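In these records, each integer encodes one residue's backbone shape. Here is one protein:

___
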Amino acid sequence: MKPVFLAGIVLALTVTAAIGAAGTGAGGNVLLASPPTKGDALPVASSSETEPTNTNIKSIDFADLIPGGLLKARAELAFRHLQEDYFQWGSISRVNFQPFPGDAIGRTINGLTLLSQALHQPTPVSLQEIMRRVPELANSDGYLGPKLPDSRANEDVLAAHNGYACGLAEYALWTKDPTATESLKRVVTNLFVPARGAIACYREKSDAAAKVNWHLSGGDIGQLFLLLDGATRAYERNPSPELKATVETMIARYQKLDLVKISAQTHAMLSATRGILRWHELCHRAEDLAFAVSLYRQYRDLAMTETYENHNWFNRPAWTEACAVVDSFLVATELWRFTGKAEYLADAHHILYNGLLPGQLRNGGFGTGPCVGALDRKGQLTVRTSAHSEAPFCCSMRGGEGLARAIQYGYFLDGDAVVLPFYCDSTATPRFADGAITIRQTTRYPYDGQVRVEITESTVTKRKSLRLFIPPWALPGSVSLTVGGKQTPLALVDPFATVSGLSKGDVIELAFKQASGAQGSLHPAKLPGARRYFHGALLLGASSSSVEPTKPILDILDPAQKVAPESPVVLFLGDAAAKPAGGNQATPPRQLGRQRHPL
């Protein structure tokens, strides 16, 4: 594939003018806002930015979707890995248990539960053993590890139980297992809810905070708020007024923190954002959506790499972390779902194909990589990405969750419409009140703009429609839509092409040419003159800065390769881009956070 280079130009469909209205930087990159400087208060998104267009859009159930192609292959690789020795009970029950009780266990439960559903596999034997034996590690109050003081003010233990709560919630939802449901209730009642008073004064300089005497995390600053993900999942399963008050106390305290000033961990920030979005959906508080938009904007402006991964902390771009990349993909997709704004969906495509999937290792695991676009510890600008180093104690399990959700996010329902925001080979059976339709999808995306959808079965009695995402890198005038081989006029709404009146036997074919060439940096103010090369959503890499890039990093870092991949250059510098404007030096962290358990 030889890209046609259009230096500094990004071509987009006129129907995506709303993206441009948000403001574009050099090379046409979408900028959601001007980044705040360190120490500034987090700006609140305006109502026009967060006004939901339709909150009824829902992803279909795993049971109604059979994956194929790239996502199936990657999910199978991760599923096999999560059943290897490291993730068996005798090992995973000891991984980081003393400092972070429940974290590795819960992440394993969560990853295997979601991948089992996405791949239509029975409960793995290893997962059954974990669920059978994990009560052995619970104290008399039902949470894991030693009992805490009445305040429960231990950031490491609370954050660790986020993973455990997420795993229990997903397992209980899937299997309807009463033991898992009861275990989750006890964790909520005896750990989360009693911590409410301490959470209200987290990192405060006050007499109340001094009396609480918080045990704060040494390295993963702000990881307490990971808990917003697990606590809201728990509330979704078993609502209670006590847990509701605890969640809202947590959100209120998080709004008051200057995450940039304290160099907060971005993974915790993004997991918290997922929880805040879930709370918006459950409780319909408009301020929660506005807060989530502001958090994502701050992350994207200040801590997203040129490969759509993350700086592990604000102000400290030491490495990326797949846990955060997964959460950023999920947050971007959910923000599209709640706001209808195409820029979030475009971000999700970029994150999936340039951050999440290239980060998977040959053994199926996930981990950490270089922060492209930031200075390394020697003061050199990082322009190459590379195969990542596995973090099996956290990232490998979360990578499994990301792949499972990527499969599920291929199909959404919006009233009587089936919505395809992503494309991948698959068969799906969306279900409506008046029946169901079965869809077989084949595609060349993301390499080419070719999508074929066939309606193989239909029992519906009312008119249904299909909405197909037209990405902003589709060339104007190149979009073609046919039904039964006949050209159909395009009905484009909020960059989706719509086909109405679906019937059994219909074959819908979408085709578009994708823009190829040079774009500016994701952060042009920091890297003036720097450029990246794309074909559609795919970021291209080269063996050196003097070679024209033609191959996607998705392929260069493909885990199916039999030999270790090269480390491709993805950021190319002009004369004015020798160093980031304003610095951004990475400093070695005082503590590296969760470490591999010695087996």
Observations:
- The chain is about 35% helix and 15% strand.
- The longest helix spans residues 155-175.
- The CA atoms of residues 204 and 210 lie 8 Å apart.
